Amino acid sequence: MNKFKALVLDKVNDETNLEIKQLSMDDLPEGEVTIQVEYSSVNFKDGLVAIQNKIITSYPMVPGIDLAGTVIHSKDEKYNPGDEVIVTSYQLGTGHFGGFSEIARVPSGWVVPLPKGLSLKESMILGTAGFTAALSVQRMEDNGLEPSQGPVLVAGATGGVGSLAVNILAKKGYEVVASTGKSEQEEYL
Question: CB of 131 within 8 A of CB of 65?
Answer without folding.
Answer: no
